[in-house]
Amino acid sequence: MKIISGGVCAAKGFRAAGLHCGIRRNKSKKDLALIVSDVPAQTAAVYTTNKVQGAPIAVTRRHLADGTARAVICNSGNANTCNADGEHVAAQMCQLTGNALGLKSGDIAVASTGVIGQPLDVTPIANALPDLVKTLSQQGGEDAAEAIMTTDTTRKEYALEFKLDGKICRMGAIAKGSGMVHPNMATMLIFITTDANIPSPLLQKALREDCEESFHMVSVDGDTSTNDMVLIMANAMAGNAPIAADSEDYRTFCAALRKLTVNLCREIARDGEGASRLLTCNVTGAASLSAARQAAKAVICSSLIKTAIFGADANWGRVLCALGYGLAELDPDRVDVSFSSAAGEIAVCKNGQGLAFSEERAKEILTQDEVTINAKIGGGTHCATAWGCDLSYEYVRINGDYRT
Amino acid sequence: MKIISGGVCAAKGFRAAGLHCGIRRNKSKKDLALIVSDVPAQTAAVYTTNKVQGAPIAVTRRHLADGTARAVICNSGNANTCNADGEHVAAQMCQLTGNALGLKSGDIAVASTGVIGQPLDVTPIANALPDLVKTLSQQGGEDAAEAIMTTDTTRKEYALEFKLDGKICRMGAIAKGSGMVHPNMATMLIFITTDANIPSPLLQKALREDCEESFHMVSVDGDTSTNDMVLIMANAMAGNAPIAADSEDYRTFCAALRKLTVNLCREIARDGEGASRLLTCNVTGAASLSAARQAAKAVICSSLIKTAIFGADANWGRVLCALGYGLAELDPDRVDVSFSSAAGEIAVCKNGQGLAFSEERAKEILTQDEVTINAKIGGGTHCATAWGCDLSYEYVRINGDYRT
Known about the structure:
2 copies of one chain form a homodimer. Chain A has 404 residues and is α+β, with helices and mostly antiparallel strands. Chain A has 11 helices and 15 strands. In chain A, helix 1 crosses helix 2. The longest helix of chain A is centred in the middle third of the chain and has 23 residues, at 248-270. The relative contact order of chain A is 0.14. Chains A and B meet through helix 8, helix 9, strand 13 and helix 11 of A and helix 8, helix 9, strand 13 and helix 11 of B.
């Protein structure tokens, strides 16, 4: 398995484009993205579990009911959520995109991200679609990645190559996610493309299971978005035989998917609103998988831990505290905690009690760009990893006046 | 029912004191408090549900097993949690206090608040106890209130007077709580005294039920402390006949308790770490009481809503979003939202969709010291209130380096 360039266009038969159509006032910020497969693609998706859902989600659900799609249209700057005519606008976006591409409306998936509760005018999208289609290319992944960004400070894309059935396959993605990001629900916007040949029910299974250990384990701020969607299109152009359930090829495909999604999780957490460092929590010794996940998520979601990490303060008591309220059962006397980073590792708590440690050494470890909290929570065999970020002044600034 | 002065010493037969004993480095900050009843008091308590619990909680539980107590000793500056000798130290604090007062160790409740995981040296407490006992007085409530403060910026005390059985009764309290405050568990440290005559099982029932609608509905930062405790002592010195279950007197007692606890909830939320304004959420129209409470808590816990309130930004979409993930069931089309304060009220969302409103008028309403979010979430009859605060730069500063 090797990392390659090309992002969402790395896989055979995918083209993309992104431009500024006018939803955003800032003309230098692209706000409309399009990803197209040259041939029909088996398609799967996981959506937010928020009871308030953006109109695009309802439309995309309908259009993916047959397990196939040809394209994704996505705007930033407006979530098209809580609007009276939201579904009509989302359906129009698909209709217009279909017309411009010579495809049926039902072949198009649609997504929107941005402010909730402001009507989305379809006019700038309609006006821009001819140009957007004209600029579709295999080099368009970067533009598409830029166009779906909101408060993201970095473009997020990734791609890799692997072999199935003797054929070279590729998988690539673009992602956006910085605030309103929380585990246990499909999070953010993630569009994945692959030229592997995999039937949509199996693709759906692979994606759903992967999310449990990837996007559902990321939190920036504990708020679950109304518009989150992870979508994967597989167009079979690599020429491999269809992947069968429980096969070696299926395991290879899932491993590639996990490598890609974990990378995006880390990028999203690292770019969390206002974040100055990526925070990873590794939990081991749990009695069950769900306890391991709960524990890891409680740690990365704690505002007190997040601010301590911002201040590079080795306040391990807050880790014990978060484990204590995050878990239904915990024997504090069996908890060990250490902090680690590129600068090394320091043990701070053993069997629920503090160890003597050098504050200076701890500071050295905690001031790195990536910091990991390691918590052994008992004698069990289950483990889990969650990703988050520190909580900084900048998060408050960004969200204190988001709409203006 | 009328508000009176005197705080935790307003009720007959209670004295208090507070001083600096040396747990904290800052000599101007009191760090040891004592509250004493002249006669044995029926006593009830509600504790944190965190699985990691401070050593004082284990000791206090044992000492209150018989439903009575005479005194509470409490230090700030160190939580005495996750320490090898923690229970021994907490027991010693009771023993020393009992000795100084001429009481049994089992008559003393103990509480600690501050940093987790640093051994608590009992020496400064032992040295200070003679002075502490000597300064006990009916005027000592303020000193005690100061001595239990941590990051609190204001002393929190309250007292009121009411009639039971033709006799004047009084109830007073001191409280501390500013960070690591979250609902659904006993939160903060609250010591309540009353001279009403009420048997401890009924007192326990009244306190437990009250907490559901008071302290369990407050959140500053979503982190549940390891050391939270709400304790009430009733010494019967008002001379009323013992309150009976389901009586008019019981209802009067509960109403007084509610008035006192809600006041403290508001004070704690208003003084949340870094808070610039008190945030109240009133939910109506819920199908069940638990749904109403869940909804109100989801709103006040949302980092995105808290930062929007800090920025006085009428971003009601985030309210819909929080309701959507906070509730198991929600029909967004039946949700109405308004913001209100001393400056008036402004409706921003009707039937799940945005209303046209003046941003200027919204700003006027949202820049007040107290802001209320009103959410009608359906056609049900249940309602609930929760209290929180905005999320500011100051919260990050306070918690970025708490230990040093």
